[in-house]
Amino acid sequence: MEFWPILCLINNMRNLHPFVVGIYCGTTKPPSVQGYLTPFVEEIKPLLKNGIFINGIKCSLKVRCFICDTPARSFAKGVVNFNAYNRCTRCTVIGEYNHESHRMSFPRIDLNVIWLKHLNYD
């Protein structure tokens, strides 16, 4: 059985801990990122637009960031996992697999030109 939670943390309330706002449960990972995230997105859209009332006070919401472990980030971004030949979304290096040690290595660090421009290193 696998559980893929979606957790929330209210950024400006330091005494609160993360809490569950959604969970996918199944014998494997979710079949698609859309199937995993769509219920959350559909529920949060009106909250982002209209805010939420707590104890009679209207509070606005915004998504600050998404934090994922490596498998969840690869799944959400639609890229290969961390140990694949073409792993990195920011470079063009193709990995080399060592059959003796069963490890993937990336012998060069050739950053993609688009990424360099993003960092203002062009």
From TrEMBL:
PANTHER family: PROTEIN, PUTATIVE-RELATED. This is Uncharacterized protein. It comes from Photinus pyralis (Common eastern firefly).
